[in-house]
Amino acid sequence: MTKEAELRQSKLLALAFFAGAASLFVLTLFLPQTWWTGLLRAFSEAAMVGALADWFAVVALFKRVPIPIVSRHTEIIPKNKERIADNLAQFVREKFLDTDSIVALIRRHDPVQKVAEWLVKPANTELLGQHLVRVGIWMLDFIEDKAVQGFIRRAVHAMVNSVDLSKSAGTILESLTRDGRHQELLDEGITQLARLLDNADTQATISQGIVDWLKEDYAFIESMLPSELIGRKGAGLAVRLASGILNKVAADPKHPLRQRFDTFTQEFIERLKADPSFAARADEIKAYLLGDETLNGYLGSLWGELKTWLKKDLHSEDSSLRQRLVATGAWVGKVLAEDPQLRASLSENLESAARGVAPEFAGFLTRHIADTVKQWDDREMSAQIELNIGKDLQYIRINGTIVGGLIGVTLYLLSHAPQLFG
Q1: pTM for the full predicted model
Q2: Which superkingdom heads the taxonomic lineage of this protein's source (predicted)?
Q3: Is 62 within 8 Å of 381 (Cβ atoms)?
Q4: How far is CA 100 from CA 60, 95, 353, 363, in A?
Q5: Binning pLDDT at 50, 70 and 90, where does residue 406 land?
Q6: Residue 228's pLDDT band (cuts 50, 70, 90)
Q7: CB 153 within 8 A of CB 303
Q8: 239, 237, 211: which is closest to 225 by C-alpha?
Q9: What is the dihedral of CA 67, 70, 73, 78, to 10 degrees?
């Protein structure tokens, strides 16, 4: 049975009680006027008064009753809609959304513990993975490819535009060279160069280079000299000289070459940060990147390739993403279940977050409730309230009929007490 039918049935029942009392009153007018007839009349009169009084009280809540003087105190709910909205919102805020209630709710239900208990069950983590995969597939189908491609392109362009390449490079180098760390790079370079010079293939290349130089620039002299021997000796000499210089630099932290390297590095950093020519060159690089068809084409196809791979993996029975989601969920559950300190810490943070968010959330929700109720149509609001509580209000009318009749009987008996006990 619908709410409308229940309300209609309860109204008819209340009306039937009133009709019964009225019928009894009319009947007593035609009966012989005895003590018992008077008793029945007193009952019926008081029952009608009680029924009508409660009918007025119930109807006055929702509608205007056109009775002089008292009519201005009818239609109570529509006239007080805004006050009802504010009071309702305030009631919800004070009784349900206050900070202490929300914190107590968190402590009572311990959501962190419940999440841990739920995740440690393999069936639940498998179910979670399946749901997340379905959501992922739905999102991939829902998202428009061109819009995402455009977003990626705009995001990359905005990022490139916002970066000062020259100053950024200078700042990065400055950080990398702080506390003489660039000297470590120089030491590593010296070590690698020494190994290269010590290599037989490198020395053979130097030797052949000397021979080729003699043949090209001094062909006549080269034809009369043992060029191969000169090349080998020259290569050995060059290697020994270079190795000697490198060893001195490596052994002396204050070697002039190191100092020149420091000076060069510092000047280069300053030029990167302040030299207009470097800044102009950086702008040229940015303009090239932003206008390069290859880069922009790659950015445009990046989402398509990623989406194709994601959809293929998510539709696969042995989806690697789903397996990782399941494994991650199981790991989180295991860690939470085995670490009471972590659970306690998360619960404390959750309570702290609730204390911080609850007032603002409560204020937003109560304003929403009040504003929504105030926007309702007066008659529609009354109709909805009556539809939901009107059935119970009709029993007030029924009870008023019965109680009124009993009061009438009581008063009748009291008025005839001297006759009964005299």
Answers
A1: 0.46
A2: Bacteria
A3: no
A4: 39, 10, 13, 15
A5: very high
A6: low
A7: no
A8: 211
A9: 0
